Amino acid sequence: MPDTHDPTPAAELDAAINPQQDADRTRAREHNLDVLGQRGILLFGDETDGELADLWSAVDRFESVVESRGGDTFTNAPDSSEPDNPAFVLPERGAREAVRAYVQRINEAAEQLTRFERDGER
Known about the structure:
Order of helices and strands: HHHH
Oligomer: single chain
Low-confidence stretches: none
Distance between the termini: 73 Å
Radius of gyration: 20 Å
């Protein structure tokens, strides 16, 4: 029976089999870094691709909630000196705050905006 054990690491095999996947992953990471940077999100450079994707999803959800309530993400940006509504400003990331904790705070802020609207409709 032939030896089927291959000592080549799986990541190396993946890259060799599908170099396009590596390029796609790099493009996605660069896009996330660019989008988050444009929104003033503090990044430390040690965030994983998955963390960046989670962070971008949370920011996108928050912005969608703000826009659905008539807010403008430009006038309510973190660097705005006079935002229209402070609740519409994306929470700032704390110094060395873990991505998971920051994503949770962003999601909670979006949920709070949603809850305020539901409560106001009663």
